[in-house]
């Protein structure tokens, strides 16, 4: 029965070894072993029984909780379109940040990203063949939702650390020695505000993760058991 265990292990390649998948793996292996024993007891050759049992289950995608079959290329095109929109908005918003060096770097980077995404979108959107648009793949919505949650957590941590580090660098000595904080003029105040505002541009990342989960539901292809 070792070949059956190896076959079942291969069915779960790409899935993490969670409690759910381990229990499902044991259940499938047990069912296949029972099927082989049943077929051989009815006179079928062992190797033939093994082959028939393996062919009875060729995929576990429809058994994994949270798996959804989606139109991948439709999803991909709209995701790239949303990413392009976000990058253009971020580029426009960061134009005033060019008065500081880091702002200039980020604004220029966003322009390059927008151009690249625009080219990718135009290329993908030009492929209107039904065979291309109707291509399906499996996504696990639970994993996507977990990544979305982690994305927001890490983003808030990044903002907190970034803000606190800037406060420590720029005003640490004043706070430590109880000296008053002075701002010489409007320009210095504007530069100060822009430095603190700059990290918030990274909100594009959790927003894209959030949009990704919605697009998966939008382009769901149907019941996995139908495949």
Give a written overview of the molecule.
The two termini are 28 Å apart. This protein has a three-stranded antiparallel beta sheet. It folds into two domains: 2-63, no CATH class; 68-221, no CATH class. The chain is mainly alpha-helical. It is elongated, with a radius of gyration of 27 Å. It is built from nine helices and three strands. Helix 4 (72-93) runs antiparallel to helix 5 (101-125). The mean pLDDT is 83. Residues 15-49 form a coiled coil. The chain crosses the membrane at residues 79-99, 105-124, 150-169, 189-209.
Oligomer category: single chain
Strand order of the largest sheet: 2-1-3
Estimate the strand proportion.
5-15%
Q: What is the H/E string?
A: HHHEHHHEHHHE
C-alpha end-to-end distance: 28 Å
Number of structurally distinct domains: 2
Radius of gyration: 27 Å
Outline type:
elongated
Low-confidence stretches: none
Largest sheet: 3 strands, antiparallel
Proportion of residues in helical segments? 55-70%
Q: Based on helices, strands and strand pairing, what is the structural class?
A: mainly alpha
Overall average residue pLDDT? 83
SS element count, helices: 9
Number of strands: 3
């Amino acid at each position: 029965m070792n070949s059956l265990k190896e076959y079942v292990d291969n069915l779960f390649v790409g899935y993490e070894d969670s409690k759910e998948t381990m229990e499902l793996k044991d259940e499938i292996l047990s069912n296949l072993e029972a099927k082989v024993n049943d077929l051989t007891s009815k006179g079928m050759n062992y190797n033939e029984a093994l082959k028939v049992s393996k062919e009875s289950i060729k995929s576990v995608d429809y058994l994994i909780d949270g798996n959804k079959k989606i139109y991948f290329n439709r999803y991909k095109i709209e995701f790239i379109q949303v990413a392009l929109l976000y990058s253009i908005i971020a580029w426009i918003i960061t134009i005033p940040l060019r008065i500081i060096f880091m702002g200039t770097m980020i604004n220029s980077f966003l322009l390059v990203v927008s151009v690249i995404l625009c080219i990718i979108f135009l290329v993908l959107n030009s492929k209107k063949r039904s065979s291309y648009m109707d291509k399906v793949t499996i996504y696990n919505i639970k994993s996507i939702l977990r990544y979305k949650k982690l994305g927001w957590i890490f983003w808030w941590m990044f903002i907190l650390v970034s803000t606190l580090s800037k406060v420590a660098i720029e005003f640490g000595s004043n706070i430590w020695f109880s000296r008053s904080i002075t701002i010489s003029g409007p320009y210095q105040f504007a530069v100060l505000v822009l430095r603190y505002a700059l990290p918030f541009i990274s909100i594009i990342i959790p927003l894209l993760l959030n949009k990704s989960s919605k697009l998966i539901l939008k382009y769901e292809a149907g019941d996995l058991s139908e495949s």
